[in-house]
Amino acid sequence: MKRHATAHWSGSLGEGKGTIDTQSGALKDHGYSFKARFEDESGKSGTNPEELLAAAHAGCFAMQLSHFLADNRTPAEDLDAKSVVTVEQVDGGFEVKSSALTLTGKVPGIDEAKFKELATKAKEGCPMSKALGAIEITLDANLA
Questions:
Q1: pLDDT by residue (tens digit) across 13-65?
Q2: What is the DSSP letter of 97?
Q3: Rounded CA gap, 31 and 110, in Å?
Q4: pTM of this prediction?
Q5: 135: which of 82, 84, 116, 124 is 20 to 30 A away, CA to CA?
Q6: 81 - beta bridge partners?
Q7: Helix, strand, coil: what percent of the chain each, to 5?
Q8: Quick count: other Cβ atoms within 10 Å of Cβ 55?
């Protein structure tokens, strides 16, 4: 399996802007810029690589956990996962430092301990977590 996305950028880092396209078409000529990445904390001026990374991590984690829950014979009714990716300035540049996963699940027939065990297993085993092995990944998982 291979998936792709493309990015186009014009201009300098601070004044330039670009567009991102995904293979699925979910993003098509979607704008991104320095402001969207580093200055607009509201996140409303366009996407950025860290936001896309957070979306990929949350989605991958939720899918992995749904598989483990089904194997446990306690399929989820709902899983609401969120990833907050933290970027810090280091030595004149920027580094992704962490991804903090939070999860609320509605899972009939499971106790809190087993839910947290499977959520931790999903956090450690989902392909995006493995790809993000260079950063800290935390998890706060709770049943609804």
A1: 989 999 999 999 999 999 998 888 877 777 677 788 999 999 999 999 999 99
A2: E
A3: 42
A4: 0.91
A5: 116
A6: 103
A7: 35, 35, 30
A8: 16
